[in-house]
Amino acid sequence: MMTLLIALLLGLFIGTLRSTPQKVTDMRHTLLKGGIVFLIFTMGVSIGTNPEIIHNLKSVGSRAFFLALSSTLGALLFAFFTEKYLRQIARKEHENDQNHHG
Amino acid sequence: MTKTIMVSLFLGIALGYGHILPPSFTNHLHVFTDCALFIAVFSVGMDLGCNRNTLQEIRQWGWKILLLPLSAMVGSIVLSSMVSPLLKIPMRESAAIVSGFGWYSLAGAMLTHLAGPYLGTTAFLANLLREIFTFFSVEWIYPRFGGWATVALGGATSMDTTLGLISETSEGRLNTLSLTSGVLHSLAVPIFIPLWIKMP
Q1: Which positions in chain A touch B21 (Cβ < 8 Å)?
Q2: Which residues in chain B are contacts of A61 at CB distance < 8 A?
Q3: Fewer CB within 10 Å of terminal CB in chain B, N or C?
Q4: What CA dihedral angle connects B186, B191, B192 and B196, to 10 degrees?
Q5: How large is the ipTM?
């Protein structure tokens, strides 16, 4: 956890510095893509080399699958409608303000 | 990107399962994972520093930003509780399992300790699958459902493992939302899981 905070702050520091050449900051996209792909690859390897995960997939796999699916979907829908609702309120407030001034 | 992600995950699983990779790599796998995570989070940090889109969302939402992780947590628990009778799991157990919010190592360990290996294993897998679903769907969800839904997918992982992908997909717009939501989800995990299990 501490390492991640250091990574974030270090990146933030280098990104904010005006003396950092743009060539360096432009590299962040390539770096990010590389990091993501390699991260997922190592995740795959850790699943593949762990016989317990493959074994457990047979016994509790379907329950885990549907719980994962419903929790992901629930988070998605609730957050989606909350954002939609808040945007509607903001729009109405904005319109009211304009009417007052108009 | 989604295709690349799928290929690298399945390639990793296949190479790991077939013991094709040298032991010097697989024995120190956690070091490589940490390095990859460090690189991804470092790049997001750099993006936070020099991308003008970054603070846009925080300025726009203010304190209301807290409603994102809150609604995501409630949504996870409500929908999985609705499914739990079909899976023949007591509601509080399904709520405890999904309260890992994608943090599979902690959820698995905590539930093994509190409620035995069966729930622990289910929690580990369910939360691992949630992280994988997030990796596979972020690119598809963002243009169709918007920022909040995209960040909500990741749960606790939106501050570390899925942060990079969310940042990349949204061109930095969701950096701060993603970090905030991930931190709050992560703080909730060790509180929620025992709460559900100890509920009478």
Answers
A1: 45
A2: 125
A3: C
A4: 160
A5: 0.90
